[in-house]
From TrEMBL:
<feature type="active site">
    <location>
        <position position="435"/>
    </location>
</feature>
<dbReference type="InterPro" id="IPR027417">
    <property type="entry name" value="P-loop_NTPase"/>
</dbReference>
<protein>
    <recommendedName>
        <fullName>Cobyric acid synthase</fullName>
    </recommendedName>
</protein>
<feature type="domain" description="CobB/CobQ-like glutamine amidotransferase">
    <location>
        <begin position="250"/>
        <end position="443"/>
    </location>
</feature>
<dbReference type="InterPro" id="IPR029062">
    <property type="entry name" value="Class_I_gatase-like"/>
</dbReference>
<feature type="active site" description="Nucleophile">
    <location>
        <position position="329"/>
    </location>
</feature>
<comment type="pathway">
    <text>Cofactor biosynthesis; adenosylcobalamin biosynthesis.</text>
</comment>
<dbReference type="InterPro" id="IPR002586">
    <property type="entry name" value="CobQ/CobB/MinD/ParA_Nub-bd_dom"/>
</dbReference>
<dbReference type="InterPro" id="IPR011698">
    <property type="entry name" value="GATase_3"/>
</dbReference>
<comment type="similarity">
    <text>Belongs to the CobB/CobQ family. CobQ subfamily.</text>
</comment>
<dbReference type="Pfam" id="PF01656">
    <property type="entry name" value="CbiA"/>
</dbReference>
<comment type="function">
    <text>Catalyzes amidations at positions B, D, E, and G on adenosylcobyrinic A,C-diamide. NH(2) groups are provided by glutamine, and one molecule of ATP is hydrogenolyzed for each amidation.</text>
</comment>
<dbReference type="InterPro" id="IPR033949">
    <property type="entry name" value="CobQ_GATase1"/>
</dbReference>
<feature type="domain" description="CobQ/CobB/MinD/ParA nucleotide binding">
    <location>
        <begin position="4"/>
        <end position="227"/>
    </location>
</feature>
<dbReference type="Pfam" id="PF07685">
    <property type="entry name" value="GATase_3"/>
</dbReference>
<keyword id="KW-0315">Glutamine amidotransferase</keyword>
<dbReference type="InterPro" id="IPR047045">
    <property type="entry name" value="CobQ_N"/>
</dbReference>
Amino acid sequence: MKGIMVVGTASDVGKSIIATAICRALVEEGVRVAPFKSQNMSNNSYVTEDGKEIGRAQGVQAEAARIEATVYMNPILLKPTSDSTSEVVLFGKAGAIQSGRDYRTSFYEKGLEAITKALHKLENTYDVIVMEGAGSPVEMNLKTRELVNMKVAEMADVPVLLVADIDRGGVFASIVGTLSLLEENERSRVKGVIINKFRGDLSLFADGKKWIEDHCGIPVIGVMPYIHHHMIDAEDSLSIQVSKKNNPIDIAIFKPPYLSNFTDIDPFLHEGDVSFRWVNRIDEMGMPDAVILPGTKSTIDDWQYFCDRTLDKWLKHYIENGGRVIGICGGFQMLGRRLADPYGADTGIEGKEINGLGVIPAITTFITEKTTIQVEGTLHPKLKGSFVQSLKGYEIHLGETVVENHDRHYFMKKADGHYDGYTSNDGKIIGTYMHHVFHHDEWRAQWLNQIRADKGLPLRDPVYIRTKKDQKYAELAAHFKANVDFDLLKEIIGIEDRIL
């Protein structure tokens, strides 16, 4: 098949952003492109149109390629539930929670079958597959049964690009070390190097580029300048974006150890008068204009983490003094009265229970069957404003939450007639299972305008993110093509004769 595998010298060197750039750049050449990552590990997932779960990066790359994301673009997704266990999501459906050792010993053959099936499906539909590796391809303790780097390049029989991050230092050692640890047949697949996150005068790296090419015998096909505020959804928690500081609206976001779907927050990056802070200590809190409790893969453990740091007491006091709080998914569950895990679905411990904050009259029970659906519905009348009447997003959760007087205090009445979430009488406390609530531009503007009104700030019209995101994909592709030998890349892939 025609394609390219993007691997890195380490995690967070920019593999996802480079793969995204290649997807859009090739699409603009008239090529039908599909992204692919055989095995992903992330709690920041993406829900496809048919309600299945894949890694966020491949969802973003599909957007950049102007196609609908499918489970074949990420057949295996590992969602960490603790430091040593992960939920295994196969073709978008949640399966067992396994330790790393159990996964390596019992899942390998099944994983190879899934990867083969997915690659064949994509090959029959698209011209080029842009593949992404994970971490480093030379983690020697894991290499013999890996399912995501050079083994997959071999299965697909595609060339490989090696991405190195110069911003973290040690770029020469990381490139030489990676190449030296590859087997000869693997090394022969590496057809180019991209230096990523370069700061300063590019001409100053000319000698470095020549040294790499002379020493390694592989062309450096590009040196990518550092991209500030690219505003393209991240996947790895190492890449959580940070907003501008000192804007008039200050939002504090609780950061749990098992944070998931953190891109729910990214739209605030586009709001010119908003700053947000990730917090997990009392001394970081201050007096924000609003607090967001985001999603988590382990609600009970993460709520206990906040309680151990007395953030529960701070939050209760903040709410009693008129604070504005919204909990999304796991954050919604935490705001309730009680969290019960009778089957060990959330914690791995059957029968574990814990008190929530108690500001929402609700009890959450964790069950073994996960909900992964796209949802839409109509807001509670007290939340309707000049901009928005309805919302659309997605749910990914294990818990079932029963709210007292749901018909009077719901956040949204879903299209199927069921209720979602909770809204207090004054509208300042909100809980919802729906991810991407802030990606709904009109709703975000309405929620922010309530804060602006409280602070005496000018009200603002919605900022339309979808248009901005597509512009960012186009800018990323242009930036990429300006800083790499794009003709050489197409030659490496085998589409050098492609014309518009």
